[in-house]
């Protein structure tokens, strides 16, 4: 039998209590008070969505401008005068 830790600290018990699905986590009296941090407008997705406001609109407008430029704003490289490259 392994010797008992003089401090009374049991690593196995600590790991079991730290597991999110442990009995201790379910009986946590503060869990419902902390739940608001991860739901509704504070969920991970909603926090990420607001990180770069306007990025989606800017991306669509930039892509549209690139297509417009390629289709309608092509410049002739001859410029109307004859230049021969020897």
Question: How would you concisely characterize the structure shown here?
Answer:
By secondary structure, this protein is mainly alpha-helical. The protein has helices at 11-18, 23-26, 31-34, 44-49, 55-72. The chain has a domain at 29-73.
Overview of the structural elements:
The protein is mainly alpha-helical and 86 residues long. The protein has a domain at 29-73. Helices cover 47% and strands 0% of the residues. It is built from 5 helices and no strands. The longest helix has 18 residues, at 55-72. It starts with 10 loop residues before the first helix and ends in a 14-residue tail after the last helix.
Secondary structure category: mainly alpha
In N-to-C order, the SSE pattern is HHHHH
Q: What would the average pLDDT be, to the nearest integer?
A: 78
Count, helices: 5
Shape call: elongated
Percent strand equals under 5%
Terminal-residue CA separation: 93 Å
Secondary structure: helix percent: 40-55%
How would a crystallographer describe the biggest sheet?
Answer: none
Number of strands: 0
What ranges have pLDDT less than 50 throughout 5 or more consecutive residues?
none
Radius of gyration: 32 Å
Record keyword descriptors for this entry.
86 residues; mainly alpha; 47% helix; mitochondrion inner membrane; transmembrane
How does the SSE layout of this entry go?
Layout: H1 11-18, H2 23-26, H3 31-34, H4 44-49, H5 55-72
Subcellular location: Mitochondrion inner membrane
Organism: Talaromyces proteolyticus
Protein name: NADH-ubiquinone oxidoreductase B12 subunit
């Amino acid at each position: 039998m392994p010797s008992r830790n003089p401090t009374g600290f049991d690593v196995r018990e600590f790991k079991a209590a730290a597991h999110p699905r442990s009995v201790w986590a379910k009986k946590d009296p503060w869990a419902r008070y902390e739940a608001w941090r991860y739901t509704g407008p504070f969920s991970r997705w909603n926090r990420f969505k607001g990180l770069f406001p306007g990025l989606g609109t800017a991306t669509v407008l930039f892509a549209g401008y690139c297509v417009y430029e390629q289709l309608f704003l092509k410049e002739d490289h001859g410029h109307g005068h004859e230049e021969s490259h020897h």
